[in-house]
Amino acid sequence: MPSAIGSGGGLQQLLGGMGQGQNPSAVPGTISGPQPSVVVTPSKPGTHHTLRRSHLEDIYSQRAGTYLTQFGYDVLGNGGSVSALQIGAVQDQYILGQGDEIVITLRGQDNATYNVFVDRDGNVTLPRLRPISASGRRFGDFRRDIDAAIHESYLQTQDYITVGQVRQISVNVTGEVFSPGVYALSGLSTVLDAVELAGGIDKSGSLRDVTVVRDGHALHFDLYKFLSPAGRTPDTALRQGDRIVVPPIGATIAVAGEVRRPGIYELKPGGRAATARWLIDIANGYTIRGAYRLTVLRTRPDGKLEFVDAAGHEGVDLRDGDVLAVSKAVNYTVGDIALEGNVRLPGQYAAGFLEDVIMQLRTKPAQGRISIEADPVALAANPQADIELQPGDRLFIPKRPSEVMVTGEVLSPGNYRYASKLGVSDYVALRWL
To answer: If you average pLDDT over each of 231-235, 249-253, 359-363, 369-373, which comes out highest?
Structure first.
């Protein structure tokens, strides 16, 4: 069975407990200098990999007409070696368990240091003290109980209580990860640690609904919070027997154009829509301060694409599969052009925006009277000229012309009856007669 210990999330949690208001039960100067640590390389083959473009990225890139990638997988989609401190101060909310080492130092009338472990019964026992329950309890609550017991049994003695070596736990990582399986981690480890050791999350997996199944209950984690500017790390430590499940990715939307981080973003679990404002915010806002034009590229139920003008309305809802195009809405008074006729977005446009308008017009189906190519040979050579007929269309095929028109430098330009035996020179000669 492959095993691994510790990881980044647990390391951050451990560091978070250091240097912040030391509790009165910590021995001043007990731990100094570099702390012992362990570096573990996942032993499963295939844990190290190169992220490849997904089919979802290809679809969105084709729709948007620009290169787009899925947000967050460059950080959470790569596994590798991890490291973590093995001793040091832990936060009060750390849950004790069998195998954790408790270091108790007495100073005063009694001077001694005890290194005891949480036993199989979940207790910690010291000389002259009754067994004190520890397993499954927060370290802060346990420390208060044992501090009170020491003050009752030891006179004029000050106690300092810390966690020494933390226990190892086994967890099962399943779902859309590159190397699912059972892993051994430190008791300080978090969801991020387990995901990293399992090779990271595949682009087919969700970053917004990673689930920890514990004692029949499900704890849900949104890793977008970790990827946000605040960088909030999931602070729930894993426990023995936890199962981490990475489900398939949920509904997605994309943003392209004048934002700082164009890309493909996942909606909240069960979410059917999000506002343009939310999408722009998570993409780190507009490229630069100014006025912008918002256009939603949407797939209709019949599979065709349509452009919906949001008219700068950031509260417009974006549904699964929508692409928000953010373009500069430059307002020129000189050099403007007027777009009129059978178009969806008529109005005034600057010359620099014309290319975007033309790109939109190319996706707008032509209407009215259309001349088409009907020669089978020509259509075979140019398939794009073979337009799709729609309900309600009327196809009119005129008669083959029975006259030949002669114009230009001739005596009497006009029409002559067609004769299959006559050539061009014959008709020209006729007009000179």
So the answer is: 249-253
Percent of the chain residues past pLDDT 70, beyond the cut: 70
Half-sphere exposure of 14 (CA within 13 A, CB side): 27
Which pair of structure tokens corresponds to residue 87? 């001793």
Cβ neighbors of 235 (< 8 A, separation 6 or more) are 13, 93, 190
Q: Two tokens at 397?
A: 């095929």
CB under 8 A, 24+ apart: contacts of 180-185: 181/1, 181/2, 181/44, 182/1, 182/2, 183/2, 183/3, 183/4, 183/42, 184/1, 184/3, 184/4, 184/5, 185/4, 185/5, 185/6, 185/7, 185/10, 185/238
The three-state secondary structure class of 40 is: strand
pLDDT of residue 148: 92
**Residue pLDDT, tens place only, 306-320:** 888 886 677 788 999
What's the chain's Rg over C-alpha atoms? Answer: 36
Q: Does the structure show a pLDDT above 90 at 351?
A: no
Amino acid occupying residue 180: P
Q: Give 96-129 as a 3 state SS string.
A: CCCCCEEEEEEEECCCEEEEEECCCCCEECCCCC
CA dist 46 and 2 (Å) reads 13
Give the integer Cα–Cα distance in Å for 207 and 221: 8
204 CA to centre of own chain: 10
| Residue-wise pLDDT tens digits, 158-171 | 999 999 888 888 99
CA distances from 46 to 316, 357, 430 (A): 43, 47, 84
